[in-house]
Design goal:
Two copies of one chain form a homodimer. The first copy, chain A, is α/β, with parallel strands linked by helices and about 190 residues long. Chain A is about 40% helix and about 10% strand. In chain A, strands 2-1-3-4 form a four-stranded parallel β-sheet. Chain A is globular and about 65 Å long. Chains A and B meet through helix 1, helix 2, helix 3 and helix 4 of A and helix 1, helix 2, helix 3 and helix 4 of B. Chains A, B: This is Recombination protein RecR.
Chain lengths: ~190, ~190
Amino acid sequence: MYPNKFENLILKFQNLPGVGRKTAERYAFETLNWEQQKKEEFVNALQVLIDGVDTCKVCGNLSDGDICSICSDQNRDHTLLCVVQSPKDILAIESIQEYKGVYHVLNGVINTSKGILPEDINIDSLVDRINKDEINEVILALDPTVEGETTSLYIEKLIGKDVLVTRLAYGIPMGGHLDYTDSLTLLKAFQGRK
Amino acid sequence: MYPNKFENLILKFQNLPGVGRKTAERYAFETLNWEQQKKEEFVNALQVLIDGVDTCKVCGNLSDGDICSICSDQNRDHTLLCVVQSPKDILAIESIQEYKGVYHVLNGVINTSKGILPEDINIDSLVDRINKDEINEVILALDPTVEGETTSLYIEKLIGKDVLVTRLAYGIPMGGHLDYTDSLTLLKAFQGRK
């Protein structure tokens, strides 16, 4: 019904996560009505998808060059290593301004049902780093899901007992209500009481 | 925190309607993880924004050429003219497969608070069309909002009494419940009873 190119634009917007037909149409009509300059800036910004984003050769974080700003910061504690699933998590942890160590980005978690095996994520480079660098503590900060737990256990076994391995505390989120807390979280909160 | 180009991508996604920081980050990470071909198809599809989409010289609908497929269809009733706000509405009306006339797209409605005056939307070309072509009936199918009503009244006055001007029926939507219907809709339903 719509002209082919416009229909194609709608279909491509539908590829975005959580975007259905109606939202895609809304995006297409909205962007089409933007001023020319705004359109060009939008399309130019997307060019980064094709050019690709550099990742840090040390930790796997998104980076402007070979080494990311965190890994090249000598004021940080390079003996403290926090393992995360995605660069997004680094931003969340940095926002609390408490952690002063470095990171290692796995870029995923082990998920056998989706065919993601240990060799598909950055576990080898993690083990390399632990063997080569002087690491005192590895903090496993993966999502508390079945896949995250599996991956944490896998890494713990791999690293062995030379390094202290810790996990983030589970419990009731701040500002939460006891009666709205799911039973698994409540169980973890009881087990982790101090 | 993120590399500049990636941060820029997130900011540009935030320009889409109803997209905040979190959703924009989700879009950015998701698109970055797409396969190269999918990325290229996405970026290429957006090129239409810069190239622009043709609009029909007769009705203002989005079109692949100078005249849209509806205006060039000789099997349709060209004496019956339906006035809509946006090309989206044409798709909705076409989907009921009942209307066999042609359309006129205003590309907006009069909205003095946003500075949209009658001369900013395609009202002049509508009056031209009514004067030149043989039109028996003009159906005003604008959104039932204050701005839509204002625009409908404005057009009715402009056209004068030479042509039959009708509006879509207001009332309770099919599958709706009386007790959930707002009072204005209920009032219209009573006034329009037959």
